[in-house]
Amino acid sequence: MAYTEDLNFIFSMPTKIIFGAGSIKELKPVLEERGLKRVLLVTDKVLREKKEIVGKAVEIIGDKLAGIFDEVIPDSGIHIVNSGGRVARELKVDSIVSIGGGSVIDTAKGIAILNAFGGKITDYDGFNILSERVTFHIAIPTTAGTGSEVTMAAVIKDHDAKRKLIFGDIHIIPDLAILDPELTLSLPPEITAATGMDALSHAIEAMHSQQREPFSDALSLHAIKLISTYLPVAYKNGNDIVARGQLLIASCLAGIAFSNAQVGLVHALAHVLGGKYGIPHGVANAIFLPYVMEFNLPECVDVYAEVSSALGIKRGSLSSEEYAKKGIEFIKNFVKELNLPSRLREVGVKKEDLEIMAEETLGDGCIVYNPRFAMDAGIVKSVLEIAY
Ligand code: NAD
């Protein structure tokens, strides 16, 4: 996994980022500077009830607000995106402001496609098929996990088929991300923990990806350091604004990293677990991360030694392999301390489903980037059995 002489890559990050407690107020000058007059606010019903979140956004957007679409549910669905697209077109909106977790931001990405180009979201299933930018989109995350505010991906569930579809396109990366830690203060501990583990998985998967490169690595390493330092703090005290802010930064850094380097087997498995069993994405990643690292270890000793260092583990006289293994143990304990499940059997998976889960995992595009060959149902099933 060391860089070789044929290293070549394109790194891109088109999103402008504004960070700071109270920075949601920056929405106003941005809309004015851009001459935007008809905003569709995309959110969910939980956040719409919160005066300090959607209430604030509505006040700031003022008379530029054309409408609110609040139908988003966790792991948004095709029908929800199509319905949001119709609303956007009927209201003739010129911009979208999404305020919520990854489910909201991903829905808004889909709506931005449909508002710009029409049709149904499944018409755009695939990778890099758009030729132009979608509708102007300002993403305001209220969880610190997915990094969707800066990524080229939108994950939308086909609830009938119990599958997660991944729409990947550079033209859907949001134009502006506002990272306001005040908006994450109300996150309950279990969502703080799960979303934090999502961000950690992005950072580590970007580092062990076959498409890893130094820019993404640099972002991932800092994200890992921030998450190992601040996730336990925010988990214990949700009102710690510094920890909340550093986690938003970490999740954004990890999002930029994986949007460029991609992710691997952890995500391929997590998408299937989320699709079939409705397990929240961060929880699914938390379960698979250490087991996939163990599987990948033969190809990733040096990479995982770097991860251990970013996790703040003392190396002493350990060999690279011993040091890498310490990092994996650290992650297992970290997951336990966050009171997240660490086994598939704890989240209701049936043993007889492992075979079909293995087969479905082969159909997820992320598996291609895994550092160790895994595109074989028997291999994937063996990892699932260990995670069980
Ligand atoms: P989420 O958006 O599904 O939200 C989970 C719950 O938290 C919801 O009930 C929501 O209302 C609530 N919530 C959000 N912010 C809150 C706040 N500040 N206070 C109180 N409650 C709050 O969770 P998520 O983990 O952010 O997003 C998960 C989705 O994102 C999954 O569908 C996943 O596949 C997708 N995802 C996308 C990308 C990407 O690059 N596009 C990356 C990773 C994950």
Walk me through this protein's architecture:
- The chain is an alpha/beta fold and 388 residues long.
- Helix content is 51%, strand content 12%.
- It has helices at 27-34, 45-48, 51-61, 78-91, 102-117, 189-208, 214-236, 241-261, 265-277, 281-310, 320-337, 354-361, 377-387; strands at residues 16-19, 39-44, 65-72, 95-100, 126-127, 136-141, 153-158, 163-168, 176-179.
- The strands form 2 sheets. It has a 6-stranded parallel β-sheet, sandwiched between helices. Strands 5-8-7 form a 3-stranded mixed β-sheet.
- α4 (78-91) crosses α5.
- The longest helix is centred in the last third of the chain and has 30 residues, at 281-310.
- It starts with 15 loop residues before the first strand and ends with a helix.
- The relative contact order is 0.12.
- The structure holds nicotinamide-adenine-dinucleotide.
- Nicotinamide-adenine-dinucleotide binds at residues 44, 46-47, 74-75, 100-104, 106, 142-143, 145-148, 151, 153-155, 183-184, 186-187, 191, 195, 198, 281-282.
- Nicotinamide-adenine-dinucleotide is lined by residues 44, 46-47, 74-75, 100-104, 106, 142-143, 145-148, 151, 153-155, 183-184, 186-187, 191, 195, 198, 281-282.
